[in-house]
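Below: protein 1.
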Amino acid sequence: MMEQAVLYILAGVAAASAIAIVFVRHVFYAALMLLACLLALAGIYGIMQAGFLAITQVLIYAGGVLVLIVFAIVVTNRVAGKSLQVESQHRFAGFLIAAAIARVLAWGYHQTEFLVNNHSQIGKELKPLGETLFTSYAAPFEIGGVLLLVCLVGAAFTASSFKKSAHD
């Protein structure tokens, strides 16, 4: 019963933050709302016994992609000298499209038969995946991490050179 209450709370946080992303005018606040949504989804995955998805959600999306988005927003703010704001002239059309997509997703949800998995099988399926990721495919992940680090250092250097040339 407690898990179900937490599940509904996390679903509410995810839905509220997703709606807030649409209506927030400042891009930085939209990125914070995206963080709340991604973390709530990770919590939902955790409650649903999908630990691998929960950890992946936190590490890749909340930890990696969102940090890059926030970094890009901060760099853009430093270059332009004013905060980014979003103005939309097509809210009604966007609402209609979102309602249509929500209707299709609800229809798909009601048409789906969910299978109850045996929890003892989950560990047996993930163990080979983890072993493969840390043996055969460890080098591509390390190279990708170094590449992202080089990109971040290059972006910081570029932002600092823009700042110097703007004041000169």
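Below: protein 2.
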Amino acid sequence: MFCGGLKTEPAYLDGLRALARANSKVLAVQARGVSPAQLVARAARVLEDNPGFYDETWCVFDVDDFDLQGVAAQAKQAGIRLAVSNPCFELWLVLHHDEHRAVVSCDKIAERLRQLVPRYDKTRLRFTDFAHGVEAAVERAQKLEPSGEKHDINPSTGVWRLVERIVQ
């Protein structure tokens, strides 16, 4: 798994892996200045350098202000799966605690998350604040966008697809 975020996404995925006793690895790529296309390209290079080593490769990133045109095709061609959140990963975290169906900005969804989890800190995510709501988040995310692959819908997140793979 390659994450566009340096702290939040890897901390969440590491916590989930521990909960599920999964044997997957999370590689965090510096978020500043790395676009989703660059993240997919880095993951593709790792796959090329290590053929047959990985069972599955995922890129986890936010839509934010990036143009995702072509990224999905680039990932598919390289055999990489995507877990994209629109507008940002914090939407996925909110879904652990509550429904959210209205179009939203990253700032507003982060504000909602801090209401639901007052001690939330983006730089020091505590998975225990979310562990009890994983199943609910999966169900809520599926209601937002059932395929998990339409990245232009705000709000939506395909993180549930990756979560299901980890906890299997």
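The chain has seven helices and five strands.
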